[in-house]
Design goal:
Elements lengths: L6 E5 L4 E8 L4 E8 L5 H5 L7 E5 L3 E2 L18 E3 L2 E2 L12 H7 L3 E4 L3 H11 L2 E7 L4 H10 L6 H5 L5 E3 L6 E7 L4 H9 L2 E7 L4 H5 L5 E4 L11 H9 L5 E4 L1 H9 L4 E17 L5 E12 L10 E6 L5 E6 L4 E4 L14 H13 L1
Parallel strand pairs: 3-4, 4-6, 5-7, 6-8, 11-12, 11-13, 13-14, 14-19
Antiparallel strand pairs: 1-2, 1-9, 2-8, 3-9, 10-12, 15-16, 15-17, 17-18, 18-19
Length: 362
């Protein structure tokens, strides 16, 4: 007997896609976007920057190497939904501890397979990201569109993924103390700092400048995170009070918040950058870096003219701003993931730059 469709994806433009469910069986309204990475699905689903989103994986087979305990980027994955072409529930990997479906079920994340994900990705590429409903086949298009329209857009994603209280990650014989402002930081960032001889204090996104400086940091990282940077604007006030006092490094959302703190504008992208193959030109060295990215907003370059920020990196594909710096305030940032988990290792030198900045400031 032929397998019967049991799940459906309804887009806010009225288009529908039928498939099969795995993971959690709940209904969910999310922003829908496509992700082009070929590997690293565990890091992607546990990346706080993807909180509340439904991601369409363009690589056709997902789940083949299962889930391993060491590779999570957050303690509790907060992805909205996962949509794949073909799901493998029989992984082959000596490190596997669970299947992808089991993790999605545990964390209440609905999954869906059997869709032509490349067709869906082309639809999003041509028409832009949109909201969607993942639901059962019995839900009519009209009912689904009503549910989407009546579901409010989530505005507190950073507050949801940030830590509630500070926590520490220490390393033997440390050289520097780094404070991470947690807007949705990845655990691989913390691990990278530890490997470079840094003790790390992770602090909530709404921390005060007094509480940050009380930890006597040698440098401060404004982390990546999910959603519209306007929803995390209180961090801009913190940045303005900290800049010039300590070296500051921003990644992803942190990069956008630094730009906002200096008065630049942030604009939404049609589809965003999500994947591990985006080429970025380093304007200082002229070299091209292959980067891993996950963002739907970008700094408006024209608005930088009235700020002391200089553009240090640009995207080769669309020319968008990928890096900023203010030498006077000892601050720099990039739009992408320097820790590259998953992804290429071209940008690891940025951590060395931050280490150098802390050394010189000391």
């Amino acid at each position: 007997m032929a397998r019967q469709f049991d799940r459906k994806l309804i887009l806010e433009d009225g288009s529908e896609y039928y498939g099969y469910g795995f993971g959690a069986t709940c209904d969910r309204v999310c922003e829908l976007a496509f992700h082009t990475s070929m590997t690293g699905y565990q890091e992607i689903i546990s990346d706080p920057s993807a909180a509340g989103m439904a991601l369409v994986m363009t690589y056709p087979l997902i789940g083949g190497y299962g889930i391993t305990d060491e590779d999570f980027e957050s303690r509790t994955p907060s992805l909205g939904a996962l949509i794949v072409g073909s799901y493998c529930d029989n992984p082959s990997n000596f490190r596997t501890t669970k299947t992808l479906a089991e993790i999605l079920e545990e964390d209440d994340i609905p999954g869906m397979e059997g869709i032509d994900t490349r067709k869906l990705a082309r639809h999003l590429r041509d028409n832009g990201n949109c909201r969607c409903l993942i639901t059962g086949v019995e839900t009519s298009r009209e009912e689904g569109l009503k549910i989407i329209a009546e579901t409010p857009v989530v505005k507190d994603l950073v507050a949801r993924v940030s830590c509630r209280k500070r926590w520490f990650s220490r390393t033997p014989d440390h050289i520097f103390n780094v404070v991470v402002i947690d807007c949705g930081t990845k655990l691989s960032v913390i691990r990278t700092f530890n490997k470079l001889g840094c003790n790390v204090t992770v602090m909530p996104w709404d921390s005060t400048v007094e509480s940050v400086l009380a930890n006597k940091p040698d440098g401060i990282l404004i982390s990546d995170g999910p959603g519209d940077p306007a929803d995390a604007s209180p961090v801009c006030d913190l940045i303005n009070k900290l800049k010039g006092k300590k070296p500051i490094f921003g990644t992803g959302l942190g990069h956008q918040l630094i730009a906002m703190a200096y008065g630049a504008k942030i604009v939404a992208m049609k589809t965003g950058h999500r994947g591990g193959t985006y080429p970025v030109r380093n304007l200082v060295t002229g070299k091209i870096e292959i980067t891993s990215q996950s963002h739907g907003y970008v700094v408006d370059e024209a608005s930088l003219a009235s700020t002391p920020l200089t553009v240090t990196h640009t995207c080769v594909v669309d020319g968008s701003v990928e890096g900023l710096a203010c030498k006077e305030d000892n601050i720099f940032s990039v739009q992408y993931y320097p820790e590259s988990a998953p992804g290429p290792q071209d940008s690891a030198y940025l951590f060395d730059m931050f280490i150098t900045a802390m050394k010189e400031a000391k």
